[in-house]
Amino acid sequence: MLAEDFGKIEFVRSARARSVRVRILVSGLKITIPQDASEKTAIDFVNSVAPKIRKKQELLRKKETSNPTILTENNVLKTLTFDVKLVRTARKDIYFSLKNSILTIEFPENADEKSDTTQQYFWNGINYFLKKEARRILPDRVKQLAEKYKFRYSGVKIQPSKTRWGSCSRERSINLSQYLLLLPANLVDYVILHELCHTIEMNHGPRFWKLMDEVTNGQSKALRAGLKDYHMPK
Fold first, then answer.
1. Dist. CA 185–CA 188, nearest whole Å
2. Is the separation of the CB atoms in 188 and 141 below 8 Å?
3. What is the mean pLDDT of the chain?
4. pLDDT at res. 2
């Protein structure tokens, strides 16, 4: 196995480096070498530990595949009310701007966009706007659907839940995750109607699903299956 088999190889010389350091990425390797070291020396080192590097790179690729919400310039995130656009710039920090339904995220051109740290910065900003938008539109949509189908509820709370799309308390309080905005409109309505039906039937027995079919025009089974294709960010 040769170093080139790992993808794009980027060399960075550093006056502070005392030895060869290898940063493993999904798309290749970033190799930091001392000023007086040769690239051949770095390649020889990579080849000497190739099995370990390959194993870690495969784990990174599996992690990316299992989490479709990893953001890159080529993986555009669409939400119910805005799209996310990543732009490399000469900035030294990460900047967010929501305008005309586009959330533009400017980030340093030398940053590894797929690293855990960078992804966390991206999602910190996105979460801010998701919460703001969810609070703006979801309570009104609950009200509209409740009035249309004659449901009664005591209130609506928007939460950053990553374990469930929504829930309903025995006091008929509706809890909705801000990540509902990652779903298409018909599935957002499905989740809301699901919780509104729980204001009448607290379990998932036959009467509950009969009620769900009544308010979804017989589409509750198909909508439920469609919801399984979507995942919350990890």
1. 5
2. yes
3. 90
4. 54
| Residue 83: other Cβ atoms inside 10 A | 13
What would the pLDDT profile of 2-27 be if each residue is shown by its tens digit? 555 788 888 899 888 889 999 888 77
- The arithmetic mean of pLDDT across residues 121-140, rounded, is 96
Closest Cα to residue 192, out of 137, 126, 234? 137
| Residue 163, φ and ψ in degrees, nearest 5 | -110, -25
In terms of Cα–Cα distance, which of 57, 47, 70 is closest to 26? Answer: 57
Decide: helix, strand or coil at residue 110.
Answer: coil
Query: Do 33 and 20 contact (CB within 8 A), yes or no?
Result: yes
- Look at strands 166-168 and 21-24 and give their pairing: unpaired
Q: Are 94 and 107 in contact (CB under 8 A)?
A: yes
Report all structural domains of the chain as residue ranges with CATH numbers, in order of start.
Answer: 3-66 (no CATH), 134-227 (3.30.2010.10)
